[in-house]
Amino acid sequence: MIQKCFYTERCDMIENCESCEHKHCRYWIEYEEDNNCSLISIEKNGKLTLKEVAKRLNISDVRVKQIQDKAIENFKNQILLNKK
Question: pTM for the whole thing?
């Protein structure tokens, strides 16, 4: 399911969007080049490498990998629980 931010509806096209100022939004990131929005970042750039994600979140690429590994582990555990 594609997520949609309530605040991006004011944009005609991604190129014309202003940077988001809604820091309380779950999709907000401190990255002006992608209008401070992770959804716009995905729309503009498609898939991102670990280094690109790390740059946007201002964390190390090693930390991004740790988070990714933990998320995958959680998904696998959830699938196993649902099969029982």
Answer: 0.72
